[in-house]
């Protein structure tokens, strides 16, 4: 039986390692496909962007304990006010004291943010609410409103946890090119040591 150090076996092992590692996905919040537990987009604003928002909100809750639930509607439905819809949804969704409901109704052209008691003070701050409104108001057309809502959601996360929000928006990944260069350098160095050893007199 040939040893793993035999040149043919060694090259084969390296090839298997590279193929296996190439198949591993790089960490990126935007690439994950997740079940709908944080986004209820009945108004269909987000489209293909919904999976990215969903994944980001799930990661945010795992890291901070704050659940941000996003709900969109085209109309109020059977209720007569944004307040009634917001408080009813917050209760029915069983959101907790550190959670936030982000509600937008197209026919009302209005955003409502309902918060648990632990985060109510910071979320109800006039500056916070104005920042959310400004972010959403940058896009007026129905087809583009999803982009504005995504900015508003980012503002909510930034207020709750600025440091983590920055990392979710710009996830830290290990570039494949740098990893490949490092691996190549290691193999070249190992080969150099092997050649040097062979040249040594016995």
Structure write-up:
The protein has helices at residues 7-22, 50-64, 82-92, 120-123, 126-137, 145-160, 162-169, 176-199, and strands spanning 39-41, 68-73, 100-105, 110-115. The model is unreliable at 1-5, 13-35 and 170-179 (pLDDT under 50). Helix 5 (126-137) runs antiparallel to helix 6 (145-160). It has 8 helices and 4 strands; from the N terminus they run αβαβαββααααα.
Order of helices and strands: HEHEHEEHHHHH
Unreliable stretches, pLDDT < 50, 5 or more residues? Answer: 1-5, 13-35, 170-179
Number of self-contained structural domains: 2
Overall form: globular
The top level CATH class name of the largest domain? Alpha Beta
What is the typical, i.e. mean, pLDDT? 75
Q: Concise description?
A:
This protein is an alpha/beta fold and 202 residues long. The chain has helices at 7-22, 50-64, 82-92, 120-123, 126-137, 145-160, 162-169, 176-199, and strands at 39-41, 68-73, 100-105, 110-115. The chain folds into two domains: 7-26 and 174-196; 35-169, Diaminopimelate Epimerase, Chain A, domain 1, CATH 3.10.310.
Topology at a glance:
Elements: H1 7-22, E1 39-41, H2 50-64, E2 68-73, H3 82-92, E3 100-105, E4 110-115, H4 120-123, H5 126-137, H6 145-160, H7 162-169, H8 176-199
Parallel strand pairs: 1-2, 2-3
Antiparallel strand pairs: 3-4
Helix pairs in contact: 2-7, 5-6, 6-7
Name its key features.
globular; Diaminopimelate Epimerase, Chain A, domain 1; 202 residues; disordered N terminus; single chain; alpha/beta
